[in-house]
Amino acid sequence: MTPKIVILTGAGISAESGLGTFRDVDGLWTKYDLNDVATPEGFARNPELVMDFYNARRANAAAASPNAAHAALARLEVDLQGEVLIVTQNVDGLHEAAGNRNVLHMHGALDSALCNACEHRWPAPAVMSVTDPCPRCKQQATRPDVVWFGEIPYGMDVISEALSQADVFVSIGTSGEVYPAANFVAEADHFGAHTVELNLDPSAGVSRFAETRFGPATEVVPQWVADELARAQK
Ligand code: BJW
């Protein structure tokens, strides 16, 4: 059998790389109002504040390294006789830095800039400014290429198709508070996938998973990958 595995990741997988989560006790949403920095309305009100927020996070992400959980998922993609798709809500590039190739950034990426006028994308500078002109249309309408509340996440067609085909769906380090990602477990379960949650604490949707393992990602993810590779070889 060549299993198809869809893996949803959230901020928890990058926590031990030194990148903050959103909703934990010391998370980003305890320091910033998400309405100010993670909505189109907040950006329209105060674009400089939002640019500062993302410039700081881009610098932090650039200084971070993948941890043992990212490395284990890269090993899974190489060693599994099957298909692995990582759907990440994270805007850092740590899955790619670890070696994963099949990664879909459903909430965008810090290393990409987007023109609000013509939707052109280009590599983000280390420090992005609202006055940066779009390289294509030349308008000063630059924004971070990330998905804010009220916007449609990227790659939803690809994700829906993958969930409908998945043998295994794994959710790692996400609180299950944000839709549509919070609903992927129900979608995968509906189509017959075995569903697994790997998390520090139970997510909001924990009861929907067939299997759960709790602990730091750097411990539970390598263990789950080892078990999955052993199972696939039987
Ligand atoms: C560890 C660990 C360790 C810690 N090891 N684990 C009412 C009902 C239902 C839905 C809605 C509603 N009202 C509005 C909505 C929709 C809205 C929504 O979900 N709102 C909720 C707040 C209710 N969603 C949207 O607007 C989305 N768009 C949408 O729905 O469009 C409609 C549509 C969809 C589909 C098709 C067609 C149309 C867009 C959501 C965009 C979210 N954007 C952000 C910012 C992205 C850019 C950035 O990074 O700044 O995405 S918000 C933020 O939350 C970010 C994250 O990706 C996302 C999820 O957070 P995550 O990753 O789960 O982090 P935390 O902090 O919440 O959890 C961390 C977890 O890690 C915890 O479980 C810890 O225990 C764990 N952990 N350390 C392992 N060491």
Give the CATH H-level superfamily. Answer: TPP-binding domain
Report the CATH architecture: 3-Layer(aba) Sandwich
Overall pLDDT, averaged? 97
Order of helices and strands: EHHHHHHEHEEEEHEHEEH
Principal-axis shape equals globular
The biggest sheet, with number of strands, parallel, antiparallel or mixed sense and barrel status, is: 6 strands, parallel
Percent in strands:
15-25%
Briefly note the CATH topology name.
Answer: Rossmann fold
Bound ligands: ligand BJW
Strand order of the largest sheet: 3-2-1-7-8-9
- How far from one another are the termini? 10 Å
Q: Which CATH C-level class is it?
A: Alpha Beta
Low-confidence stretches: none
Which class do the helix and strand fractions yield?
alpha/beta
What does this structure look like?
With 234 residues, the protein is an alpha/beta fold. Helices cover 37% and strands 20% of the residues. It has a single domain (4-233), classed as Rossmann fold (3-Layer(aba) Sandwich). The chain has a 6-stranded parallel β-sheet with strand order 3-2-1-7-8-9, with helices on both faces. β2 (83-88), α7 (94-98) and β3 form a beta-alpha-beta unit. α6 (68-79) runs parallel beside α10 (217-233) and α8 (156-165) crosses α9. The radius of gyration is 18 Å and the shape is globular. The structure holds ligand BJW.
